[in-house]
Amino acid sequence: MRAKTWNVGVLLCLSFAALSNCRSRNEPLLSSRQRRAATDDAKRCSYTFLVPQQRITGPICASATGPEPDKDRVTRMDISDLKEVLSKQRREIEMLQLVADVDGNLVNEMKLLRKESRNMNSRVTQLYMQLLHEIIRKRDNSLELVQLENRVLNVTSEMLRLASRYKELEMRFANLASTVNNQSVLIAALEERCMRGFSRPDLPVVPPLVQVVPETIPANSNRFTNEIQRDHGNRAFPRGSPRMDTPPTADPLGVPPAPQGTLTSDGPFRDCLQVRQAGHSTSGMYLLKAEGSDRLIQAWCEHGLDNGGWTVFQRRKDGSVNFFRNWENYKKGFGNIDGEYWLGLDNIYALAKQADYRLLVEVEDWMGKKVYAEYSSFRLESESEGYRLRLGTYQGNAGDSLTSHNGKPFTTLDRDKDAFTGNCAHFHKGGWWYNACGQTNLNGVWYSGGVYRSKFQDGIFWADYGGGFYSLKSVRMMIRPID
Ligand SMILES: [Ca+2]
């Protein structure tokens, strides 16, 4: 339809152009009909117009009197009609063009809309897929959560079952340990009776064993061991054989060589409380000198316990030092200040007589639990009195195992001052303020693991905490002036 319209338009334009040319050339003819016939030009200006649906209502030649009307002659009316038709058609064409333009724009818009719609569709599809994926994932997660919850429940019930089983085992172990303790006592009694039955006076008399069996033995003491403490050379020494090592405090001042950089340059102080009051708050080795004594003493000051100021005179912690020693060793002191050591009876005596001191005994079992026994006063008598122990009243949570040793002189293998017929230091393998022989010895053999098997109660024991056959992991004895 549009193509046809254009064809008609082009044809009309061409015709109009030709007509214009003709008119411009034939203008003189139209103004003077007399000269028209005489000129040859008139003959040349003869055209045929093909105009669709052209309505010719009247004759083209108006004059009937003039020369014979020429059928091919064009009148002004024709031209004006033609012009009118042309302009009308032009308007129509313009209208059609406008419509066509509008249609084109609409088509473009439609195309854009279709494209957009396709995009939207694909986006919606994509979102839908994402949503599906998310839903599936959430369902999986919730399933997983339920599974985890079930597992947690299972593990918890298993844990509870194990805990009750553990408690049961612990009780059984405590019973067994008590039985072992009692049997050891019984065996010792039977042995003694047996020896008496043979009536051989050359056999040594065994001291009575501690009968105290505490209600609760520290747990985790599930190893029976006869591991003997190590000495400096890492050599185990046969049980019962005395060791007479040269003490490390053999120099005239009684000061063993100190490790480099561990001792403050200040001092000497009268005791560790004075060290603390001088502003030293770090536990470690310090140089002391008791009043009225010209002997310098190295000692460990404990400042991390009960406001500090404690002078440690005995410490066991790893079995690195042999405590089965003679009188002279116990008098002067031995061991390593930053490890296991004995400060020396002379030094303890000199320090403790400066003022009123109290004693703190710290005891640690193999579970790492620490308990304490504190005595309201502490001092030693002089060497001529056998460094007799003088204690005040007990308080604490370790049980009072030391009061039975109160007022007793110190006994070593080579100086027997105990109340027993034999030598308690021989059976308990360390110097101590023995009675006959007593409820505690913190200078015995360091056994690892807790409960130990031995013919004698020769471990580091505190009868009210663990019994006579429970060797403690670590112990400390320390003094501080009474506030
Ligand atoms: Ca004796």
From TrEMBL:
Subcellular location: Secreted
Organism for this UniProt entry: Pygocentrus nattereri (Red-bellied piranha)
InterPro entries registered for this protein in UniProt: FIB_ANG-like, Fibrinogen-like_C, Fibrinogen_a/b/g_C_1, Fibrinogen_a/b/g_C_dom
The keyword Protease is annotated on this UniProt entry: no
Protein name per Swiss-Prot or TrEMBL: Fibrinogen C-terminal domain-containing protein
GO molecular function: extracellular matrix structural constituent; protein-macromolecule adaptor activity
One Gene Ontology CC term in the entry: fibrinogen complex
Subcellular location, principal: secreted
Disordered: annotated span: 230-267
Entry superkingdom: Eukaryota
